[in-house]
Amino acid sequence: MQSLKEVLKRNYAILLDNLQKACLKAGRSMDSIRVLGASKGQSPEKIKIAYELGIKLFGENYVQEGEKKIKELSFLNIEWHFIGRLQTNKVKKALNLFSVLQTLDRYDLAKEIQKQAEKLNKSVPVLIEINIGEEPTKAGITKGEIEDFLEKISNFNRIKIIGLMCLPPYKENPEEVRPYFVEMRKLFERLKPYLGSEFRELSMGTSHDYTVAVEEGATIIRIGEALFGKRERNP
Ligand SMILES: *Cc1c(COP(=O)(O)O)cnc(C)c1O
To answer: What percentage of the chain has pLDDT greater than the value 90?
Structure first.
């Protein structure tokens, strides 16, 4: 039996190798991309191993699950992002735990972030989640709604928009996801003049399609099972 450490080490080596190939193909440098360990359903033990291998950025989908791990691993210098659907009644807690919220997907949430951030007297870096496949089951702002949305939240001075994120439709063949990543990059370029130099992150690509995402401009790839192995229900 291989130890957890050996398994993760091997997974990470494969990931870096694929990443390097994608970078070469796209003429990008490896340091323009950060790997986020998508650690929902993964144990603190695995997160610690991944950290020791060199991953410093992790993302959690549920506030309660995240809180447990963040507290348990507080002795490590981890940057934690929130990447799940955020309920408004969990915003306060989330702001105390996570340094970036990647899933701003609706006005009510923006309003609550502004309110809680004001109380804490802090500024909150967020990514706007885009429903790039316009799927009714998925969260996010559509391309058509984005300008309106930005206009509506423009008075929320505690919210700092640092980028866009998406979870595109699942396709067996990752090549079929490419057009969505291209759309994301185009949208990013279109909004950049309005959002300035702080607007620099494009969070896209998961275990299944990260090489394509990198070829199309991702700056953060969110990797779960390709790094940690299968998720558990009670990590
Ligand atoms: C779970 C999750 C991921 C990682 O998915 P994998 O297929 O395990 O790589 C990435 N992003 C979000 C928003 C997720 O919920």
So the answer is: 97
Is the pTM of the predicted complex or chain greater than 0.70?
Answer: yes
Whether 81 lines ligand 1, by a CB cut-off of 6 Å, is no
Q: Per the domain annotation, does 85 fall within a domain? A: yes
Residue 235, domain member (yes or no): no
The answer, yes or no, to whether any atom of ligand 1 lies below 6 A from the CB of 53, is: no
- The token pair that represents 149 in the structure block: 């949305």
How many domains does the chain divide into? Answer: 1
Structural domain for 185, as ranges: 4-228
Ligand 1 binding pocket includes 138 (Cβ within 6 Å): no
Distance CA 149, CA 106 (A): 8
Are 223 and 15 in contact by the 8 Å Cβ rule? The answer is yes
Q: Is the pLDDT of residue 83 over 80?
A: yes
Instruction: Name the β-bridge partners of 130.
Output: 141, 166
CATH number at residue 204: 3.20.20.10
